[in-house]
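chain below, 133 aa
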Amino acid sequence: MSGFGFIRKHRTWEDWLGMLLGVLIVVSPWFPFSSHDVMDAERGIMILNTFVVGMLVFGLGQLEYVALQRWEEVGEIAFGLWLIASPLILGYSGDEALRAWHITLGAIVSLLGALQLWQDWRLSEKELTKHPQ
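prediction:
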């Protein structure tokens, strides 16, 4: 049971993981195993989408590291869910490898955000400000 206490506290490695996931999202259109079968117009929209979502996830990870607030975790959950849905909504689901990567990365971002929100839910505003220490 002592191992469960490890997951109950928001740790700084979780914020670093969020930043790493943001970088992976940004570079995901250029992963070597992606088939690149998406049409040029759809590819432009997909690249813009992944760049914006990746940078926002990266930025939220940085904000959590510097000044922890609950809305940042809610934002991570929302961006992760958007990344999961974006291949279907934006029409690039034909690239199976990229679709799988976006679903996987989106799920990890959403789960990380949910874990952090659960960890911070019972903390007061004063306790949230002491996060990086």
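Residues 42-122 form one domain. The radius of gyration is 16 Å.
thats it, cya
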